[in-house]
Specification:
Chain lengths: 228, 285
């Protein structure tokens, strides 16, 4: 089976500095990979490069076997960024943000063909999964930091992807919500989904992790899943 | 209602409604993308198009349309290419557009009164033929917003998220710029090129004060836009003022009211949201 993500000798330069220095990482379907490392180690850079959001200055990377620039099936990948982007300050409701996670599933040239009932149901399920059911009409930016994090997780869940890429999904999230998230991810993993997540504290997610990759100074310094 | 006896006022009112609807609609995306000055840049560049149109004896509207679409694409290219250099490059485009426009308009022998009417608006000069062109352009702008609204929402939220969703970020960014350029051309006769982008920004800033949702912001901004444009035009007729500045001053008044009323409303809402969040058990049942 084609691996969801495969990077070979990945180099990334940002502002003239080498931030990623020769990373080899093959994530197989069904893996639950935790990327650990100190601040500035290059964890966010690594997962952005895996998704093609940052250009490589050397090496190669592929999403489901295809270089990101030519990959088309983005509905298969759900990305949770480290922070809820603010933009120019126009308010958006929780539902609007979460529903935007389904954009990749829309028919690009015939958006009218999109099944609105299915969209709505998926958004409702995602909101319930992160404990934000009933908050869908609130303005996302007026929520607390941990709640905003959960909105972003719901956004990825709503897209019903095969692979999740989460940048510190539990940062600032309270203990109960972390347990909920672990439960939700556990269900998805049991269903064969792939997860790559960055974390400083694994907490309740620890039992789900099948592989731990440790990053320091832009290099992988430990990887307990390399055997495969 | 006596003013409706003049054909130019009837044309003007239809135009005011079209401007009031389109400028804030695309403006909501433009503001969320932090491109509030995009409309100003396009406005300056459009003047060169008007000058070209006058000089070559063709339609100033079509000249402005062609040059402002090209200008918008140039601005978008500069924005996407470089982070630091874009600032200066944009400024160069602004000055070049304005200076070029004034020189070309002068060469065409159109005179300062005509130049003034393009800079600050004049509704009396709009013909029924102009109106058809403008109505067609307005329909195109609203169609873009209706068809690509969800994609443009994600794009203006965050380009990185849009790219991770597989959206054609460069195409959509260009689409926003071109649609803004078309809006500038729609509004330039009534409001004038120097004030044209006010209606893209000010009604949105007003709606932002009290709306909860992106959609709500856009609809409220469109309502505020139509209100300011129609009332501003009527007022300018009543008191014999230039229409552009009257419309913009009214929009600013709407903004001031929204700020005064919106602040307390938002504080109450935040407090309520935080309070609800403090009772997770209630929420989950
Ligand atoms: N937008 C940027 N432009 C230039 N350099 C950047 C940018 N973002 C991060 N960097 C640099 O890249 C390096 C790695 O940053 P990265 O965000 O990948 O770290 P991280 O491991 O995710 O850290 P954290 O735990 O704080 O999230 C840092 O040294 C940082 O200075
Ligand atoms: Mg990070």
């Amino acid at each position: 089976m084609t691996p969801p993500f495969e990077m070979r000798g990945g180099h990334v330069r940002r502002d003239g500095r080498d931030v990623l220095r020769g990373v080899d990482l093959r994530v197989a379907a069904g893996d639950v990979v935790a990327v650990l490392g100190p601040n500035g180690a290059g964890k966010s850079t690594l997962i952005k490069a895996l998704l093609g959001l940052l250009p490589l200055s050397g090496g190669s990377t592929a999403v489901y076997g295809v270089p990101p620039a030519r990959f088309r099936d983005w509905g298969r990948v759900g990305y949770v960024p480290q922070r809820l982007p603010m933009g120019g300050g126009v308010p958006a409701t929780v539902r609007e943000v979460v529903a935007s996670g389904r954009v990749a599933r829309r028919s690009r040239w015939l958006p009218a063909l999109t099944d609105r009932g299915a969209d709505r149901a998926a958004v409702d399920r995602a909101l319930a999964a992160v404990g934000l059911a009933g908050r869908d009409r609130d303005t996302a930016h007026l929520l607390s930091g941990g709640q905003q994090q959960r909105v972003l997780i719901a956004r990825a869940l709503a897209g019903e992807p095969d692979a999740f890429v989460l940048d510190e999904p539990t940062a600032g999230v309270d203990a109960t919500s972390q347990l909920d998230l672990a439960g939700t991810l556990g269900g998805l993993v049991a269903g064969g989904r792939t997860v790559v997540l960055v974390a400083h504290e694994l907490g309740p997610l620890a039992p789900l992790i099948t592989r731990t990759v440790r990053l320091a100074g832009g290099r992988i310094v430990a990887d307990d899943g390399e055997a495969a | 209602m006596e003013m409706l006896q003049f054909e130019y006022m009837r044309i003007g009112l239809v135009m005011a409604v079209l401007i009031g609807l389109t400028a804030p609609a695309i403006g909501t995306f433009v503001v969320q993308r932090r491109l509030a000055l995009l409309g100003d840049g396009i406005g300056h560049v459009a003047l060169t198009g008007i000058g070209l149109g006058l000089l070559t004896g063709s339609s100033p509207i079509l000249g402005a349309l062609a040059v402002s679409v090209l200008g918008a694409l140039a601005i978008e290219l500069l924005r996407a290419r470089s982070r630091s250099g874009a600032d200066v490059a944009l400024a160069l485009l602004f000055y070049g557009g304005l200076a070029g426009g004034v020189v070309l308009t002068g060469r065409s022998g159109a005179g300062t009164a005509s130049l003034q009417s393009y800079l600050f608006g004049s509704i009396t000069s709009v013909t029924a033929a102009d109106l058809y062109v403008i109505a067609g352009l307005a329909a195109a702008v609203l169609l873009v917003v209706a068809l690509f609204g969800r994609e443009l929402f994600l794009l203006s939220q965050d380009e990185e998220l849009a790219r991770a969703a597989g959206l054609p970020v460069r195409f959509l960014s260009a689409l926003v710029a071109v649609t803004a350029a078309v809006t500038v051309v729609i509004a330039m006769r009534a409001i004038g090129l120097l004030l044209v982008s006010a209606l893209m920004v000010v009604p949105v800033a007003a709606a932002q004060q009290f709306a909860r949702s992106f959609r709500g912001t856009m609809l409220a901004a469109m309502a505020a836009g139509v209100l300011s444009a129609v009332a501003g035009l009527a007022g300018s007729y009543q008191y014999d003022l230039p229409p552009g500045p009257s419309i913009v001053l009214l929009a600013l008044a709407v903004f001031a009211v929204a700020v005064a009323a919106g602040g307390p409303l938002r504080r109450r809402r935040t407090a309520a949201a935080r309070a609800r969040a403090a009772e997770p058990e209630v929420m989950k049942s």
